């Protein structure tokens, strides 16, 4: 069991929160894997309501005009580079494709559920664990 529970996460689009650093807003950016292969687009951001820091990227891929798209939550810790309109994830397309998915249309979606599994999948320390350090995001 963890010493702390995950802090409240909110979808930036569903709140009136502003990020601590405006340049961290990468919504709409193209997401590529470690080989430069396009994965999808940053559909939304989940932020820590207390610290106003990005914790998860909601990456949508597939579908037509947003309909039928699959979504993956990717910890910001997996981001290795951000440029003007591109976010690079330090994983392969296959690894990202096999990551746990979620349905953003679920009215009772709780982004903090199963986060320990998500961070474990990516081999990363969850942000609420003691000793966690926020990544140098967005590397611009």
Automatic annotation (TrEMBL):
One Pfam family per UniProt: PRC
InterPro entries per UniProt: Bac_photo_RC_H_C (IPR014747), PRC-brl_dom (IPR027275), PRC_barrel-like_sf (IPR011033)
GO cellular component, one term: plasma membrane light-harvesting complex
Domain PRC-barrel residue range list: 24-89
Highest taxon listed in the record's lineage: Bacteria
PANTHER family: BLR1072 PROTEIN (PTHR36505)
Protein name as it appears in the record: Sporulation protein YlmC with PRC-barrel domain
Source organism per UniProt: Kribbella shirazensis
